[in-house]
Write a structure and sequence with these properties.
16 strands; alpha+beta; eight-stranded mixed β-sheet; binds zinc ion
Length: 310
């Protein structure tokens, strides 16, 4: 078992409209856009990052908005629901706010003893706000969202899988412990994590495979402190038989990727160097940032990208 994983780092999904996506996370959910860059493998597409004030690992929801991409079709082999943590007693505020912003798919329930508000993202992505006790992370106090309501970061995510056992085994190897189960859902948690500590597995043996599109999660990233810890994790995964990519420089973190037995793409990302490496913390997410190799093509790239206001 490895001990370097500290919870989630970021979740990356796909969207159909950049402006709509940015408005949803900043104006409706009150997150901060902490980076506006491009998909490093496809620079004609934005890569937008939203999180707390500094883009702290464990708070960062990111998107590739592919213009006019068709919506995905949910199924097995993907991340199901992404959970955000909110302060105790704030769900009423959020329910009223999301209704006022015409957010669809709202429902309140209690799962694993926690109150949650489910809602649809901009492309019918599946999200929940969960009231969490004793989460000492501070959300971004901004506009009409105060710190007693602001999203504190992720709580975790659920995986929809045909075969729960193999991925459960992998999570245990990654340092997670099974802490609860309810119906088809098994809850795993990591000790000593960054707050984004939960992974639920939803077993769906009869489900057809998900068809990815706008609103689907592209991959889910787990946090490690630094590059040394990442190399230890990489070696441990390789030794266990996983095919893991080499370490890739993503400018704001270093990344390795591997495909899980259930078909979900996992990433392990470093907490270093962070989103303020090329932008002042007071102005995160404002300018279009390009990796060095694309900087000579800035004019051309800017022409291809739909402008985003705010
Ligand atoms: Zn990633």
């Amino acid at each position: 078992m490895i001990t370097q994983i500290k919870g989630l780092h970021h979740v990356t999904s796909m969207a159909a409209h950049a402006q709509q996506n940015s408005d949803f996370f900043t104006k409706k959910l009150g997150l901060r856009r902490v980076k506006k860059t491009v998909n490093f493998d496809d620079p004609e597409v934005y890569h937008l990052y939203y999180g707390d004030e500094f883009g702290t690992p464990g708070s960062v929801m990111t998107y590739f908005p592919f213009p006019n991409m068709a919506q995905g079709f949910p199924g097995a082999g993907e991340v199901g629901d992404t959970y955000f943590a909110v302060p105790k007693g704030s769900l009423e505020f959020w329910k009223d706010r999301l209704v006022a912003h015409n957010v669809s798919g709202l429902s309140v329930s209690e799962v694993f003893g926690e109150k949650r508000l489910r809602f649809d993202g901009p492309d019918r992505d599946s999200f929940s706000l969960i009231e969490v006790d004793n989460d000492n992370r501070t959300g971004w106090k901004h506009g009409d969202v105060s710190s007693s309501e602001a999203i504190q970061g992720f709580r975790g995510a659920s995986l929809r899988l045909k075969d729960a056992a193999a991925t459960g085994e992998l999570l245990r190897f990654m340092g997670y412990e099974q802490v609860d189960s309810q119906g088809d859902h098994t809850r795993f948690a990591i000790n000593g994590g960054n707050g984004a500590d939960i992974i639920d597995i939803e077993a769906l043996p009869e489900a057809t495979r998900a068809r990815p599109g706008a609103g689907s999660v592209h991959h889910i990233a787990f946090a490690v402190e630094n590059r040394a810890a990442q190399l230890e994790v990489r070696k441990a995964l390789l030794d266990t038989g996983y095919q893991v990519t080499p370490v890739i420089d993503r400018d704001y973190f270093w990344a390795i990727y591997f495909r899980t037995p259930g078909g979900v793409l996992f990433e392990v990302a470093t907490n270093e160097p962070g989103f303020d490496r090329d932008e002042d913390a007071a102005h995160l997410g404002e300018g279009l940032k390009l990796p060095t190799r694309y900087e000579p093509h800035r004019a051309q790239i800017e022409q291809l990208l739909e402008p985003i206001t705010d």
